[in-house]
């Protein structure tokens, strides 16, 4: 029983992460219709916002090399050197704090990317979109590799969130042992909040409504005298920010390296397509479905019946869903079908 | 049988064959004139040609084509291990296995179109890759890849001659398939494939595929069942991939699961788009460019750069080496990324469009290139 | 050009010019070229091929290997401080190149993929005339390239590869490995685990689902079960899974009190980070503190795992904090050249290059069959791992291995591993027949 509950919990956690990682892609790919292979790169850039912020805070103040020493001794982080304990506390909170950096940086990157490149590709074939965004993803990746190297760079959550929460006690189960890491719970809440905010923006604001109208019929909205191009730029910017934030908060779970975006790229596409093109709620639903089923498929009991099932479960579900539901879970007709 | 090939088509074919056959000489000044790379040019040329039959003609973007390449390789190596080191049976096995696999996957995946089709093919390929890497290890030898061993049965070979001391070489009735003979074998296959592709492009079947691309619904309304045509194109394209895979095994008897990974499928997509979707020569060029960067640009190190820029004065030389160093050696990915972007931004039709423009600029109105251009530009990628 | 004083750039320029010269049309020459063996060096230099990952997850490891190779070439050519040439017990090498020829080199990118690695090695052999190939940082690549070199008659000196298969099931006459293997890790680690954690432990294994992972899992299970440990479960995880949480959650209620992570590289960094996050190290099971063990360590992995690796036990082939003369000499020479200490990958690659050069010098020829005879059964010292034997039966080096612990009291940025025990060679020696495989004949080949 404990094992089942904890696997459900894990599935929800994974699902929220998948949904959040795929959310930015749904906005761009599912709605603007641009096949954005640079989505992973945006996720990675977000993660490296956290890395850079931390690196700035801990800029090494090098103590002098002692006589006869071959390598410099351990450096003191800048903040600690300058501000003592307060500085150390700020360094400790660097991951959540770097959200403040990531939002403007990612927004700027998103806007520049859309204005400078993507907007010229709205009417180009998907093949061209793939080539140009993939090319850009490689360039961005290589630049990051030049600066930060290829090795993962560990980021830690604030000390207060280290350790685990006793879920069993919350549920009132006295003799069960169900714990879950605090930081993962926070990621879950964070994902829910961001997804909710994007959802509310698109559904409950006039601005969002116009964007949605523009997605369905760009020309008619344009004829009404609305500058839909500008709104699309804004949507792209938001998508970049969402992808970046997903990356920032994921760093304590997965030490980021320059390749982390590519690793999530395929998964994001699968989530978006299984959810159905053009549907935000579909993507969220698909995220949870894939997360929970993956979690269960990895249990020993299941693996002993179907060896290797955990290796392929994501793709197997994708095949089954796409064959039984022509447009994924909640897709709209006519989007990206030709 | 060749009625629908025009004089220009024949010229293009002869020109193409000539260029392929003399490539060991022409590519030497570029550092690409050695058998292993020349073989790879041909093999990936075949792979991209086949991919283009599906994508270029029907517009169906398969994101799992590497699976067929992988299956072809495995089948070919198993043929070496079980039966004989002769490459002919192995190539036949490779094509057949990939074709069968393509029938199954195509039958299922073609029930959907657009992005849903792409994701279905991607899913099948990723499942094949993941399983081949792990639980199917008894068949695929997993991470290490399927290799020949000293105690393979090789029943046909061993029935005629006692096995030698070391590992045998792959051969074509006694001709060793490593080195230049291997290249000419692959080149022959490429030329045949090019000819077949040209025939398909110019045939009524090719027209039908193009019609499906431009408006499948209209085709259906007129009472055409498009599915058999699509499936045929898919299987042909899968068999090309199988041939490419078995040639990889023939020139170098090893088959690894990485060949089926999504990045490998993505690579052939990029090759085709880079060269020019829907053109005849484009995919082969695209394949050549990507393989060239992978093998040659990655091999430049500081030493080679210093030699290249040795004519510059010292200070300038250091700057030039530093700058160039970003794009070669461990930075070759960067060059590739920049080239993708430049080509797609400035030459929407890929390298073939660049060539067409150059020809126009030079005022050369050679009919063959115009014919090729019209074949390309009449069918935009989508 | 001043030939008396070789500076770095001058050397690089010349070795490259030579590489370029070799690159010129082999097709014109190959037919007429009479040679006794594959890539017989003709001019006044000999070309080594350094095949390392320059892109992908192991790019940093590859960069470190390349640094070591370049340093080795310098030392062979008599530049720099000579490094390990002064401590190496064989005195055949004089710092004047090999057999009177200057050592030049060519490089390539394996991308940590078998196909790319073989392409790259073929380029070095077919186009650039490399007499020997070395490098790699995964077993899949090492086995693939070793197979290729064996077919072409070129000696392959393996870099970082830890699978038992490289010198076991897939051993080849032309392939040699200096690095230790999974079996040795198990033998070295077992007694320390028993000493530190007791003999009544219940272990849970998470294993990368491919050949290297399996051989390591098997080796560790054998070693620990011999000590009285029980294996609760051994679960296979997909390569590159990223998030391993779904495999870690079942550990919580499994009744196990030790988690063994048979992962390498990025997988290990991720699974360890996440296991620590799940509070495993703060847990008490069966009245004992829960422990995590990572059988194979590298400094770069320790760097990637950050604080999470502090206090965790594992093994390495070599570490720069060793105090013997040879290790110190190598660290000094590498450190002065590049400003930071070498990794174990750098060490093994450097040593392999020297060993090959030395074998050629002693054989008096570059012809592979003779060089192989010199390497087989070669007994030496002064390379940082104590007295070492290149065993003739499987081309595996037998020497000391280190049991290390993630350092929680770092003196410098690179002070990541603390040596717990230097395990002697006798403990690690095994019967070559247990892994099967055949070396094949030692016959000359002409490419």
Automatic annotation (TrEMBL), chain A:
> Which GO BP annotation is one of this protein's?
amino acid transport
**Transmembrane residue ranges:** 16-35, 42-61, 93-113, 160-180, 186-211, 232-253, 265-293, 305-325
Q: Which Pfam families match?
A: BPD_transp_2 (PF02653)
The reply to whether Metal-binding figures as a keyword in the UniProt entry is: no
Q: What is its main location?
A: membrane
For this UniProt record, give its keywords in alphabetical order, as a comma-separated list.
Amino-acid transport, Cell membrane, Membrane, Transmembrane, Transmembrane helix, Transport
Molecular function via GO: transmembrane transporter activity
Give the UniProt entry's GO cellular component terms: plasma membrane
Superkingdom as given in the UniProt entry: Bacteria
| Keyword Transport tagged | yes
InterPro entries attached to this UniProt entry: ABC_transp_permease, BCAA_transport_permease
Query: What membrane topology is given?
Result: Multi-pass membrane protein
> Which locations, inside or outside the cell, does it occupy?
Cell membrane
User: Which family, according to UniProt?
Assistant: Belongs to the binding-protein-dependent transport system permease family. LivHM subfamily.
Q: What is this protein called?
A: Branched-chain amino acid ABC transporter permease
TrEMBL record, chain B:
Q: Which Pfam families match?
A: BPD_transp_2
Any one cellular-component term (Gene Ontology):
plasma membrane
Topology of this chain in the membrane? Multi-pass membrane protein
Per the record, the domain of life is Bacteria
Q: Please provide the record's keywords in A-Z order.
A: Cell membrane, Membrane, Transmembrane, Transmembrane helix
One GO MF term? branched-chain amino acid transmembrane transporter activity
Give the subcellular location.
Answer: Cell membrane
Which residue spans traverse the membrane? 12-34, 41-63, 83-108, 115-136, 182-201, 228-248, 268-293, 305-328, 334-356
Output this protein's name. Branched-chain amino acid ABC transporter permease
UniProt organism field: Nitratireductor arenosus
UniProtKB/TrEMBL annotation, chain C:
Tell me which residues make up the Leucine-binding protein domain.
Answer: 46-409
The record, for InterPro entries, names: BCAA_transport, Leu-bd, Peripla_BP_I, TAT_signal
Query: Which GO terms of type biological process are on file?
Result: amino acid transport
Q: Which Pfam families match?
A: Peripla_BP_6
Keywords attached to this entry: Amino-acid transport, Signal, Transport
Protein family membership = Belongs to the leucine-binding protein family.
Protein name (Swiss-Prot/TrEMBL): ABC transporter substrate-binding protein
State the organism named in the record: Nitratireductor arenosus
